[in-house]
Predict the structure of Thioredoxin-disulfide reductase.
Amino acid sequence: MERQLDVLIIGSGPAGLSAAVYAKRAGLSALVLEREYRGTGQIAESDQVDNYLGLPKMNGYDLGEAFLNHAQELEIRFQEGTAYDYEKTEDGWSVHVEDGQTIHAKTVIYCAGAAHRRLGVDGEEEFVGKGVSYCAVCDGAFYKGKDTAVIGGGDTALGDALYLADLCDKVYLIHRRDRFRGAASTVRQLQEKENVEILTEAVPAKIVGEQTVTALELKDGRSIPVHGAFVAVGMQPQTEPLKGVVDLDDAGYIIADETGITSAPGFFAAGDVRTKALRQVVTAVSDGANAAVSALEYIQRQQD
Ligand code: NAP
């Protein structure tokens, strides 16, 4: 059996990489388990991150690469794999990975983030990859010169609409309420774009098409002719394997404050996956640092 790690970090987004840097610099043996090779989480899907202190107008992919390179310069260990079960043992945690391996660690820092929430209308599943997308930065280029709809009213939807406006012939921003959740400054930028049409109090009912999407139908009976529908209706925390392991809130987020301490001893949470008011790169990075320090203190207490 391999020697027990001090800390197993789940996820290689900003929270996980920051936790890894702090753990390594504190002299802890750490391993980052990432679902995809050189993945940096949601940040890679942002065209522009303009609110990370000191690095204005940064492309999200490039910022993620900079984080990753920093961790790699410190020779932090990475392994590809998906953990599906977390078992508390007498002296730590046994984490079962889908390839059949079990990883033993004194502590776990869980930074698996959140995944794209589904809109939940007819046609959505059928047309995923054939006109329905959850990532404008990844798929926008396929819709150059075409008409698209962005569904949602948060910062992601607003940013997606802005990004697509520079590529597409026409962009409809479809929001179910009359007030946006995202930044007013971005709404103003969108209002100034001639090829953006903002439809509020517009509730999607169905995505229709033949081989690919041809229209988005609204509950009020309107049919919006589009080639692509970009769904940006929020995120779902990636906590499915944690039911019965740590306390989650009603929406599925791990209950933890900025220390990352959860209801389970030696199990810490950082980034978008925990209960918090502001889910941003800067708060994820700060969470990772805090959780690594909490893990270090926990290990030291166990040794006393
Ligand atoms: P979000 O803020 O939760 O917004 C989700 C939006 O989708 C809301 O406007 C919501 O409508 C709408 N929605 C949810 N379910 C729906 C449904 N079934 N049908 C139609 N509309 C639905 O999610 P987000 O935009 O992904 O942002 C997540 C977090 O990341 C936020 O804290 C955001 O500030 C942050 N973020 C920041 C940046 C940046 O600063 N550059 C970029 C992206 C995201 P209601 O408003 O009616 O609830």
About this structure: The chain has a mean pLDDT of 95. The CA atoms of residues 49 and 71 lie 20 Å apart.
